[in-house]
Amino acid sequence: MAKTIREINEKIANGSVVVMTAEEFTRLAKEKDCATLAKEVDVVTTATFGPMCSSGAVINFGHWKPGIRMEEIEINGVDCYEGLAAVDSYIGATAESRYDNAYGGANVIQDLVDGKQVHLHARGKGTDCYPTKEIDTWITKDTVNEFYLFNPRNAYQNYAAATNGSDAIMYTYMGCLLPHRNNVTYSTSGELSPLLNDPYLRTIGIGTRIFLGGATGYVVWNGTQFNTMQKRNDKGIPLGGAATLAVVGNAKEMTTEYLRAAYFYKYGVSMFVGLGIPIPVLDEEMATRLSISNREIETVVCDYAQSGHPAIARTNYEQLRSGRIQLDGRTVHTAPMSSLAKAREIAGILSGWIKDGKFLLTEPVASFPTESSVRPLEPRQKEEV
User: Fold this and answer.
1) What is the mean pLDDT of residues 126-133?
2) Pairing of strands 330-336, 209-212
3) Which residues, at least 6 apart from 374, have a Cβ–Cβ distance to it below 8 Å?
4) Is 34 a catalytic residue?
C-alpha cells in the first residue's frame, strides 16, 4: 500500500521512521525486491557537493545615517549588484575581485559565513532622501540584516563528462583537460545524486525542504537552463544536463564545511555547494527509482575542444568512478570535480536530522514544468525576433 508524506512525517515525529542513504538503499536492493523495500523504508537521503557557479547571496546592509542610495557597491574589492533598493544587494559567486582574480564573490560569501569581517565600500549620487555619497565600513554576518543564499541553478541532473580533443591543454570549469583526449572529468555524485534518484521529479518541486550549505533550505523554482527534453536511457535517466533547481537558505546558519569558494586555474572563481534532498519512498515505483546503481546511470562524454561541446562517447558512473574508461580505443584516466566523501557526509547528516525528528518532509506546493528546453543565444536583427 502506498504511503503519504503526511504518514511519513508522523513516523518522524514518533521516532519510528526508517531512513537510509541512497547508496545504502541501492545495496539493499540487491538483497530485497522493491515492493518489500517500499514497505520497509520510508525515506532515502541523497546529496551532492560540487562546484555550482550559478550561486550567490542577497544582503541587506542596513541604513547608514544620513542615508545612502548605494549605486556602486564593493565588498573586499568584489563588485556587488546595485540595482535593488537603497541598501539591498546581490553578490554572485563568480564575480572576481578588481585586484585579485583568484578571489571573488564565493570567497566573500565564505568569509561572511565563517564570521569574518569584510570591507564594504559604497557610493551614490546623493538624493534629497539619501544625501550621503560615499561610505567605507566593515561588516559581518551579524551586523547585516539579511544574508541568505539564493542560487539560480544548482544540483544539475546528470552533468555531462568532459574531455579535450585539441592539441593543447584546456583550462575550464571542468578542470584541466589534457590534449588528445588524455583525460575525462565529471561532476555528479552518481547513485547518491539528488535528481538522479527521482528522475521525473515526482516528489521534488517548489517548496521542497532540503539541506543547503549545512542548514535548512528550500527549493523555490526550477533552476535556469531547466531541460525536460534531454534523451533518457531505459531507466529514465537523462543522458546529460536536464533538470536543475533554484534554491534559497539562511546563510547566517550555514557552515563553510559545506559551502566553499574555489578557484579554477585560468578559468575563475566558483563555489562548492553542499546540497541534500530527502526522497520519500511512497510506493514500489519510487523504490525502483531509488534503487538505481552507478552502472545504470549513464552519461555522455563531451569534447570541449569542439564548438558546442558535442557528445563523442557514452559511459556510466561505475566506469567513471573506477578511475579509467575506454575512449577512442584507449584507456583514459577519469577524475571527479565533486566530492563523493562530502556528499556521503551530507546524506548521513540529513538522515540523522530526520531520525532525530528535526527535519520533516514537505509536499511540493507546485510542480516543475513538464515541457521545457534550453534555447541558445544567437545573433539576430530586431525584425527577426
Assistant:
1) 98
2) unpaired
3) 225, 226, 227
4) no
Catalytic residue of the set 34, 53, 129, 302: 129
Cell of 363: 509536499
Q: Which three cell numbers stand for residue 290?
A: 531509488
Q: What is residue 384's predicted lDDT score, i.e. its pLDDT? A: 76
Does pTM top 0.85 for this prediction?
Answer: yes
Average pLDDT (274-282) is 98
Q: Give the residue carrying C-alpha cell 546623493.
A: 126
- The C-alpha R_g of the chain, in whole angstroms, comes to 22
* Whole-number pLDDT of residue 382: 85
Average pLDDT over residues 179-205: 97
Angstrom distance (rounded) from CA 70 to CA 86: 5
Give me the mean pLDDT over the 349-373 stretch: 97
Q: Residue holding cell 508522523?
A: 10
Using CA atoms, how far apart are residues 385 and 381, in angstroms rounded to an integer? 7
